[in-house]
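$ ./design --mode recover --in tokens.txt
reading tokens...
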């Protein structure tokens, strides 16, 4: 969800209202100076969300359509925070990560491999399920 935001008429309230929107939508608040940029910003947000373009390639597409340098700057500024937020990934780990069976073995050999392949220590991985020594050492664990 996005708010394509053009500055409010009442400038005294601008910061407070904008902060309230940010609390709800986070990086989905896309600020505009020129209302004529709304379509370019909206299409850019859709392209970034659907991962059909990154910000650089979207700006290049606009440049190829003959957009002015001012419009390119405005759209890039409006979309830059949202674009950056898509690149960040939050990873939460609960419990302990499995360690290698042999402290000298490389971690890639002890953790996982692509489906249908064997890791360096002879374990076979299929469709996210591990077969081999680790399965018998940790019964009931995925």
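writing sequence...
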């Amino acid at each position: 969800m996005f708010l394509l935001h053009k500055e409010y008429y009442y400038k005294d309230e601008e910061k407070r209202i904008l902060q309230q929107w940010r609390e709800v939508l986070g990086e989905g608040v896309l600020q505009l100076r020129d209302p004529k940029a709304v379509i370019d910003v909206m299409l850019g947000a859709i392209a970034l969300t659907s991962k059909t373009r990154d910000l650089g390639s979207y700006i290049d597409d606009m440049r190829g359509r003959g957009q002015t340098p001012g419009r390119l700057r405005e759209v890039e500024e409006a979309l830059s925070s949202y674009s950056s937020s898509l690149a960040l990934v939050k990873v939460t780990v609960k419990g302990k990560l499995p360690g290698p069976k042999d402290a000298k073995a490389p971690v890639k050999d002890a953790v996982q491999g692509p489906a249908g392949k064997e890791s360096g220590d002879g374990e076979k991985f299929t469709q996210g399920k591990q077969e081999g020594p680790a399965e018998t050492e940790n019964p009931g664990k995925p």
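exit 0
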